[in-house]
């Protein structure tokens, strides 16, 4: 499936009209129609605007496999699945998550320590 077909499939799955997408990205319906038919190259800025309109990332559009990705909710997953999902993130995002966890665990230890020592007074 080429990029034009992916954009058209996503638009149809989300029940948008060509004119709605065209208006959002700042082109007329004819120009947008040519994008979907693969007759006109899509500019990076237009792809970004389309992604924003569809509430997707450009990567999700480029790697579209026939169905719009659903929101990922990590809290209802097992611990093993949560770690697997975190490992799919980029290095910087993974480190951010681990720093947050470290901070939360440190805060918990301090709270437990103070509660224990205040109770002993």
What helical percentage do the residues reach?
Answer: 55-70%
Question: Given the C-alpha coordinates, what overall shape results?
Answer: elongated
Order of helices and strands: HHHHHHH
Report mean pLDDT, rounded to a whole number: 89
Strand content range: under 5%
CATH architecture of the largest domain: Orthogonal Bundle
Biggest β-sheet strands, sense, barrel: none
The domain tally reads: 2
At the fold tier of CATH, the topology name of the largest domain is 434 Repressor (Amino-terminal Domain)
Write out the CATH superfamily name of the largest domain: lambda repressor-like DNA-binding domains
What is the class of the largest domain in the CATH system? Mainly Alpha
| Radius of gyration from CA coordinates | 23 Å
Structural class: mainly alpha
Parts with pLDDT < 50 across at least 5 consecutive residues: none
SS summary, helix count: 7
What's the β-strand tally? 0
Q: Termini separation (Å)?
A: 70 Å
